[in-house]
Input
Amino acid sequence: NLYNDGVKGKFGTGSDLQIWHNGSNSYIDSYTGALLLRGRGSGADISLQPKTGEVGVQITADGSVDLYYDNVKKLETIANGTNIVGNLGINRTGANRALDIETASNQNAVYINSIGTPANYYGRIADDGTTFLEIDSSKNLKLISDSGKLQLGASQDLQIYHDGTNSHLNNSTG
Output
């Protein structure tokens, strides 16, 4: 045992880098410049492991940065963006969240759930805070605009809309 608890290994002219253990936790302190952790060789990836055999963060040389939860990959950077595996909860605390974006298992579907107050809808799509599409708790699809139209068909042949006074159902193909 070279050092006892609480004794710091100090490096640099001004003791700028210190490594120490206080009996419960271990520390690396850098007092000047950046603290750089680098893989220096062919295939020299960096892995942070919260415990033996469990990956927390994997940094691949010339490649991705991956984040794990309980040894399961949840986020990865890719050449043209980021992949999220599982649900994306925004402003999430446990089961409570302001917005939950999730994909259905084994389906090409995306669900956007807005949960909270008012809890009278299942999903909303909004632009600058103005809702233009809503699915309410009764499963009704609402276009929230007198100028909006529900357009169906490859050429929008069928249009359903309300102009503020009258309701219209137009079919331009016969």
Notes: The two ends are 90 Å apart (CA to CA). The first strand starts at residue 8 and ends at 11.
